[in-house]
Amino acid sequence: xxxxxxIDRGILTVLEADGRATxxxxxxxxxxxxxxxxxxxxxxxxxxxxxxxxxxxxxAALGWGTEAFVxxxxxxxxxxxxxxxxxxxxxxxVGAYTVTGPADALLHVRARDxxxxxxxxxRVRGEADVAATDSVVVLSxxxxxxx
Length: 147
Hints:
This protein has five helices and four strands; from the N terminus they run αααβαββαβ. It is an alpha+beta fold. It folds into two domains: 6-46, Winged helix-like DNA-binding domain superfamily/Winged helix DNA-binding domain (Arc Repressor Mutant, subunit A, Orthogonal Bundle), CATH 1.10.10; 59-137, Alpha-Beta Plaits, CATH 3.30.70.920.
């Protein structure tokens, strides 16, 4: 991956704030013409710096208003690949991470309600030789970047 200059960083800042910004708007913000901004964006995509464009949908609008972070501890040693395979098919898991500390993994889980969350955590417990889980339900989002 190539080094990014200040113009590239400026383009990324604009697109992170508004993924639907026009090339003219991007160019105005970073001091380029619209065609030059388009070439830069195309190069950032081709180089893999921009992984894609997507719509960010509010999960609550889809009825998934409950979310939690679930610490998972496994019996013995379980590889990240095993954990990924075990949990990939659980749609309520929107993020899964290996972490330092006493937990083996941290899961970000979204559900319709607490009962739905409970069923999802039960499915997590049934996979990957899970010894224990600790869940923390999110009350409100304070800062969220780059969802």
